Amino acid sequence: MMRIRGAWLLAMLALAACVGPSREKPRRPPAHRPPPVAKADDPRELKQCLADLGKYGAQFNVLPDRWFGNGCSATGAVQLVAIGIPVTNLGAMKCRTAERLSAWTNEAVQNAAMAWLDSRVVKIESFGTYNCRPRNGVAGAKLSEHGRANAVDIAAFQLADGRRITVEKGWRGPDANVRNFLRAVHKAACRRFAIVIGPDGDAAHYNHFHFDMGADGPYCK
User: Fold this and answer.
1) Which phi and psi angles does 217 have, rounded to 5°?
2) I need a labelling partner for 187 at 20 to 30 A (CA). Which of 16, 142, 157, 171 fits?
3) Which residue has the higher pLDDT, 98 or 13?
4) What are the beta bridge partners of residue 123?
5) What is the pLDDT of residues 141-183, one digit of tens each?
6) pLDDT of residue 3
7) Torsion 190-157-173-108 (CA) sign
8) Burial class for 175, CB neighbours closer than 10 Å (0-12, 13-18, 19+)
9) What residues pair up with 91 in beta bridges, in sequence order?
């Protein structure tokens, strides 16, 4: 019996010596992955887009592709010079977004203005296009489509009769015709852009319409 116990004890000690302490390296927390770098646009799609943009009589400059830090880029972009009426603060904008803006301006905006306000729009005010920032400017959020030159924010409309219609004051304002006009152009944008966000979308858009051609669409609010 003693011999059996001794043999068993020796076997356990030998097994412990073979196993020893774990040599597995401690796991490190996953490294922060930088945002993906945008690829150059398909030249065939860009050529077609430039032709489509020209159908609206738009004047524009084709911009060289540019890549910035934090995943931001402006590829396949143009700068609109004229699309029938002035639109302020237009910088680099991807061609398809610019083409959709031209269609919306020349078709939906003027039709809605004559229907509800009995006056043509002579100028559109925007908050701009390219801006390297997260969505709604919230740190840690996904990259905004503005950071890809793929979005535009519309804030106000100047009419031929001298009136100035703003999203901020008109969306829930006292004038029913102004409210109807703004809702008409908002709805029309939803048929042309992938994503449209207005004052009913969230608090960050209380004073403008956001239009973009991002892959997360369709979304209209």
Assistant:
1) -80, 175
2) 142
3) 98
4) 158
5) 799 999 999 999 999 999 999 999 999 999 999 999 999 999 9
6) 46
7) negative
8) middle
9) none
DSSP the chain: -HHHHHHHHHHHHHHHHHH-S--PPPPPPPPPPPPPPPPPPPHHHHHHHHHHHHTTT-EEEEPPPEE-STT-EE-SEEEEEESSS-BTT---EEHHHHHHHHHIIIIIIHHHHHHHHSS-EEEEEEEES----BGGG-TTSPBPGGGGT-EEEEEEEEETTS-EEEHHHHTTSS-HHHHHHHHHHHHHHHTTSSEEE-TTT-GGGTT-EEEE--TT--EE-
Tokens of 185: 């152009």
**d(Cα 186, Cα 221) in Å, to the nearest integer?**
9
- 92, exposed or middle or buried, with CB in 10 Å at 0-12, 13-18, 19+? buried
Do residues 122 and 85 lie in contact, with contact meaning Cβ atoms separated by under 8 Å?
A: yes
Q: What pTM was computed for the model?
A: 0.80
Residue from 151, 106, 119 nearest 133 by CA: 151
Q: Do you find a cis peptide bond into 218, omega within 30 degrees of 0?
A: yes
CATH for 41-220 is 3.30.1380
Query: In the prediction, which pLDDT does 195 show?
Result: 97
Residue recorded with tokens 């973009």: 212
